[in-house]
Design goal:
The complex is a heterodimer of chains A (323) and B (369). By secondary structure, chain A is mainly α. In chain A, 68% of the residues lie in helices and 2% in strands. The chains are: A mainly alpha (323), B mainly alpha (369).
Amino acid sequence: MEFLVDILLLSDSTLRVAGPLILAALAGLCAERAGIVDIGLEGKMLAAAFAAASAASVTASPWAGLLAGIVASVLLSLLHGYVSINQRGNQIVSGMAINIMVAGLAPTLANAWFSRGGQTPLLPSEARFTEITLPFADAISGVPLLGAIYSDLLSGHSLLTYVAFVAVPTVGWILYKTRFGLRLRAVGENPEAVDTAGISVTLLRYQAMIIAGILCGISGSALSTALGAGFIRDMSAGKGFLALAAMIFGKWKPVPTLLACLLFAFVDALQGRLQGVALPLVGEIPVQFTIMLPYVLTVIILAGFVGKMEAPKASGIPYEKDR
Amino acid sequence: MSAVPAKLPGAVEAVLMPFLNIMVALFVSGLVVWGLGEDPFFALSLLIEGAFGYEEAIGYTFYYATNFIFTGLAVSVAFHAGHFNIGGEGQAMLGGLGLTLAVLWLGDTAPVLSIFLAIIGAAVFGAAWAFIPAWLQAKRGSHIVITTIMFNFIASAFLAYLLVGPLQRPGGQMPESSDFPDGTGLMQFHEVLEMVGIRFEQSPLNASFLIALMAAFGVWFLLTRTRFGYEMRVAGKNAHAAAFAGVSVSRVTIIALMLSGALAGMMGLNELLGEQLRLIGNFTLGYGFVGIAVAFMGRNHPLGIVLAAVLFGVLYQGGAELAFEMPNITRDLIVVIQGLVILFAGAMPHLLRKPVALLYARMARKGAV
């Protein structure tokens, strides 16, 4: 029984941690399927987390926070789009510039606005996205197994976590079942063909960047207004890069990307549970080593020991119209 | 559409364009300062006063610059080979570990030998930390940006483990090692000047500044005067052409990234062997990332990198004084400026090309009439 409770708790925190990761990975997926490498996910998440926490703190409304988070992330996305599409600059360098700029700007502004050493004030629960109890969760909590799964595992997450899980089929539907999605994928594989068909490569790529910005904005907002209760310096802690790795592991497809995100989230949840626990044979693992787990897993996955990964063909290459 | 590749004379291309890009970055930084409710011009004067106003400040400015020469060279060596090594932080941490082990092992018995061994240890450990991402990039095509970032996190956790575990000062509470034995530090700049009879205020500037300059010269020599440097640059420009010409691209990748790691690793010489005289957790303080901005600002040329490193030294030392004087400005602002420099000098080098080309064409026409 104890074991089952452990599994339940672990699965529950896996779902919670997975939310922002899934949204960020989908953002990277939309950008890369359209041919733009987005290494700046980390910075956009952090910017959104800061903007959301600031707005929620001032207005006491999580919705205002979410809106501010999305706006901040979309603006950075458009900047990255401008560099990648119009300036034909190096997309990796541009993404890193955004990451570093935000890592400095967010605590600078936090300090100037709130004077709390680079943090935003702790958000009260009415300014956050709090846990939602799904319908009938209380009623069937007594039912064996089903009750535990529905009431304890699936119910009781924040709205943004559910948004993340709904975003997966939505993005899949847009990419594979709509004309816009077909064009978006085409522009990442063969922009010349799209251009020849009389469709604007520039417009499509900007649209992809806006979608990526929105998804990443929700992801960052979730960090500071749902999982946490305020902005803390460097609170994205490499999640933007983990999301990129999950997207690569998921072969640039929504559902496999979701599974990869769940794997990362599980490892993250596991490392939290392992802290201070004595394991059979090895004993207690020092906390510094359990912290490493998600990062080590990322390297192992990227090493490609789990199958071949092929990026969209035109990803990272600026499109140049022939004259 | 912008980014029209217009022809411009060499001097305009090499000096004016990068200068203008940096001016744009600094202008936007000024806007940020203004947005924070402070006077950007007063801030600039405080910054320069703080960096050059007195002897100790000058020492500090060049002390910081030493770090940035190492990390800037590290980024640029990888970039010449076509790779973006953002693992300077982790490589510097491991470099610091390498030199600490050398000094703690031999420092008591043979201090001078231990210093030489420490220099080698810093480079070897830094290179070794770059090896796995380098090998994965060369052989498996793993994204070097993500793997090196992951190795930064892993290095940071590993160092934290060592400094509260096996390497912690016996009986100590802080995450730091024992002090290095007497006589194992690098020579201080003011001590050298005192020997020739010049009095200079005490500052942490030390002999590793000279090592950094030698490293810059070494990188210049490697890139422009050796066969391997040539292979590196060809592989960086066009890996297919290089492979066709018989260059082993994966070998070049691995060696270039390990050289990059070695240079980043040597940053510890300045911070640890020059000043702290013990290993402390997270002593790198983001200097590995500063290297990215320094490399782009210096246009990946060793001389440019030295100049850009001094400029960032000014920003760090002057910025510390600035943060003291203006309550709304913290040292995080310097990180913003780094990001802006990378954005304008690294990602958008052609932003001002069109207006400059137009202006140049007009001036050329007038001159001809």
